[in-house]
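Ticket #4471: structure output looks truncated?

Reporter: J.K.
Steps to reproduce: submitted the chain below (147 residues) through the standard prediction queue, then opened the result file.
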Amino acid sequence: MKKYFFLLMMSFVSIITNAQTSKLLMNDAKSYIGKIDDKAKMNVGFYSVFLDKDSPETYKVNGYSDVEGTKADFSGTIIFNSEKTKNSKDESKIYDLKFSEKGTGKHNGIFFGELSIKESLDKNQLKFEGTWTNYGNTMKFPVYFNN
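Returned output as attached by the reporter:
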């Protein structure tokens, strides 16, 4: 009986944690603010974030990037990385991310990188760092955005 109770409690904790992570990523429907190539202002926001039912450590996301007025919708994944989280010096949860923008223009591409979530009683800090590469592989820039 204790074994079943323990499994039930672990499932409940997992459901609550996943719901909290989805809510954190949605950022109260506000966009994240950052830069691309350490120059151009960039906003990133999410339309939806949901847990992949077949992969409990994967979040499916739909959102947009807006670089100085040029907006592109994207879809992608945010995947919990237990190894990087275990080795995190500041106890952040670390996720790998990949967002693919819709469109085929020279200013459409893919975001690759990491998301770190540092939870605290005052304010949860979400920080995205990585690279954006256009589909033609003719442009590649560092990206950074946070809440």
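Triage note (M.O.): checked the attachment and the full token line is present. Helices lie at 2-26, 82-86.
Status: closed, working as intended.
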